Structures are given as C-alpha cells and as structure tokens.
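Handout, page 2. Input:
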Amino acid sequence: MIRVTKDGKPKYVATGHSLHPKFWDASQKDFRAAIARRTPLRSDLIESLETWLNKYAGAAKALSEADERHDARAVASKA
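Output:
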C-alpha cells in the first residue's frame, strides 16, 4: 500500500507488494531506510516503490502546473 496525502486527507492505493513486519522499521521516515537490509529481493522492492513514487509525484506536479484544483483522490486517479 502507498498513501497519497493532500491537505491532511489520505488516499490509499494497493501496490501489489507485501512485506513481513520483521523486515520493516516503522521508526524510519523513508521507505528505503525502513526496509531492512536483510530483506529478500530488497533492491527489486525499492525499485518498484520508487516507480510508484515517481508516477504519483509526476501526476501531482502535472496537476499543480496546470493550476488545477486537486486532492489526494485526483492525484491517485491521474497517476
């Protein structure tokens, strides 16, 4: 799951990935740091999550540059 937040309103989107809690450090702010180094296929997971991040960041930037009013749901649907 990823969370897209705009003005404090979250929208959750399924990524199709799951990770056992023992491989996740919730005290970390960045997902790259939160995924334990011993996680199987760590680099593939990080690469996939970065793809999702870039996709949603690009959608938010496009809406912002178009000066369109948008919320988390609009960003998620645009991506």
